[in-house]
């Protein structure tokens, strides 16, 4: 195939091929596949191609199949990589035991707090309430709520560090 005939076919059919390939593989990969179609054209003798448009679209359809196979294989590799990462990051039995022990120490530390401090802390940290909302609920000032939460936090952290 001569470069002149490929150039003519490119100027005549490239936009149609691009539209076809965008529908099949998306905007990102379509321009590269259009170029690949025309690169394949260079390897064929021009006399053997009777219907250039049909030939180009058949070559494009074949490239779509190849492209989708590669993408599918790549997706499976990505899934395998993620699976390996998840398995590597999964907590060991030792990590689970340490976490359970810390949780028990945290519960014990909470139990040692005065009821108002514990209540303010739980409402803030676990229920997501603001200092103003807690103050209104408990009938105390927002500054007092802040002090209760700070004391509770300091107490729990000191117990967990031991």
UniProtKB/TrEMBL annotation:
Write out the transmembrane intervals.
none
Q: Which InterPro entries match?
A: RNA_pol_sigma-70-like, RNA_pol_sigma-70_dom, RNA_pol_sigma70_r2, RNA_pol_sigma70_r4_t2, RNA_pol_sigma_r2, RNA_pol_sigma_r3/r4-like, WH-like_DNA-bd_sf
Superkingdom of the organism of origin? Bacteria
Q: What is this protein called?
A: RNA polymerase sigma-70 factor, ECF subfamily
Query: Lineage from the top down?
Result: Bacteria, Pseudomonadati, Pseudomonadota, Gammaproteobacteria, Methylococcales
Please state which protein family the record places this protein in: Belongs to the sigma-70 factor family. ECF subfamily.
User: Mind listing the UniProt keywords for this protein, alphabetically?
Assistant: Sigma factor, Transcription, Transcription regulation
Q: Name one Pfam family in it.
A: Sigma70_r4_2
Does the record's keyword annotation contain Transcription?
A: yes
Q: Which Gene3D superfamilies match?
A: 1.10.1740.10, Winged helix-like DNA-binding domain superfamily/Winged helix DNA-binding domain
NCBIfam families on file: sigma70-ECF
Record keyword Hydrolase present:
no
What sequence ranges are listed for the domain RNA polymerase sigma-70 region? 10-72
Q: Which residues form the RNA polymerase sigma factor 70 region 4 type domain?
A: 104-156
């Amino acid at each position: 195939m001569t470069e002149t005939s490929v150039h003519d076919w490119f100027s005549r059919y490239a936009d149609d091929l691009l539209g076809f390939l965008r529908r099949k593989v998306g905007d990102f990969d379509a321009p590269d596949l259009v170029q690949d179609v025309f690169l394949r054209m260079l390897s064929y003798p021009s006399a053997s191609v009777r219907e250039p448009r049909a030939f180009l679209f058949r070559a494009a359809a074949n490239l779509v199949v190849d492209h989708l196979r590669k993408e599918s294989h790549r997706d499976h590799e990505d899934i395998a990589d993620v699976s390996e990462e998840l398995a590597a990051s999964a907590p060991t039995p030792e990590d689970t035991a340490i976490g359970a022990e810390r949780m028990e120490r945290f519960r014990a530390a909470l139990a040692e707090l005065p009821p108002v401090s514990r209540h303010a802390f739980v409402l803030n940290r676990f229920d997501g309430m603001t200092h103003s909302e807690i103050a209104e609920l408990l009938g105390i000032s927002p500054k007092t709520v802040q002090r209760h939460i700070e004391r509770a936090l300091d107490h729990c952290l000191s117990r967990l560090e031991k």
